């Protein structure tokens, strides 16, 4: 049994409702899955806000945004003030192997750009944005790391909406305009280790821009320029647009969110077939419900094993 088949089998065992829906998938480098329950059963409200405030002391072309952390917390997202919680614990389990893969010097995975992490899924609505933002918040808590969250789901910019940054310059602007540099679109935030690149302006061919030479150069620069930085790309779903698999080519690690009780084996298999063999892949079973043992903390196994 390939590693990915084992991971999918674990997913299957972790969710009764998923049983029979997820079957064997192509062999790839893969981590064991993490299962994230939907503890409340409620969707997070879409009402978020953030103020933007240009920092007078900031260097030319750099920007600063102030996240409304209280509101984000009320909406169910992790913030630096979040105490110990099931969500914080789950994110710790997801980030540990990602950070180890990115910065550990002991393993050669045959994959480049290991500090670049794509968060994707098979279909829309499986929890990519929820995972991306929470993962970024969790990594921002690490003392010696910075994290850059990039809203690369340019056609459906979830993080940009949640952070209320729809009018800000971002990825699309950068990809279209050769005169812009990374600091022109990258924002500092009031979370000390967290930077953000919004999706930018709406553009009819926004998703196609993800396959441009400029995107390739951007990822290369992000991968090499800041060696202690993790970059998380909230990305389009693999089956919804062919450009997503091009983004998958540019990163070293891929977190694939699988929505419990909704995603069929065919969809997961098809999505996985679009990811190259040398990528490090982790699966997250999201919005899992059902009866687990009393020692269940919302994850299953160790991601990246
Ligand atoms: N584990 C979870 N617990 C609670 N709510 C969740 C969880 N995961 C996702 N949600 C909620 O489910 C909805 C869809 O999630 P999200 O927006 O993250 O999905 P997505 O994959 O980014 O969707 P899209 O493809 O539209 O960008 C949101 O309202 C989100 O807040
Ligand atoms: Mg989204």
Descriptive report:
By secondary structure, this protein is α/β, with parallel strands linked by helices. It has one domain: P-loop containing nucleotide triphosphate hydrolases (Rossmann fold, 3-Layer(aba) Sandwich). It contains ten helices and ten strands. Strands 1-10-9-4-8-5-7-6-3-2 form a ten-stranded mixed beta sheet, with helices on both faces. The chain starts with a helix and ends in a 17-residue tail after the last strand. Bound molecules: adenosine-5'-triphosphate and magnesium ion. The site of magnesium ion has 6 residues, from helix 4.
Note the main attributes of this structure.
Rossmann fold, 10 helices, alpha/beta, single chain, binds adenosine-5'-triphosphate, binds magnesium ion, 17% strand, 10-stranded mixed beta sheet, 305 residues, globular
The CATH topology turns out to be Rossmann fold
CATH architectural type: 3-Layer(aba) Sandwich
Question: How would you spell out the order of helices and strands?
Answer: HEEEHHEHEHHHEEHEHEHE
Distance from N terminus to C terminus (CA atoms, Å) equals 15 Å
Please tell me what the overall shape is. globular
Biggest sheet architecture: 10 strands, mixed
Bound molecules: adenosine-5'-triphosphate, magnesium ion
Strand order of the largest sheet: 1-10-9-4-8-5-7-6-3-2
Query: What is the CATH superfamily label?
Result: P-loop containing nucleotide triphosphate hydrolases
The average pLDDT is 80
Radius of gyration from CA coordinates: 18 Å
Residue runs with pLDDT of under 50 for 5 or more positions: 16-30, 39-60, 291-305
CATH class: Alpha Beta
| Tally of alpha and pi helices | 10
Give a count of the beta strands, DSSP E runs of length 2 or more. 10
Q: Into which percentage range does the β-strand content fall?
A: 15-25%
The portion of residues assigned to helices is: 25-40%
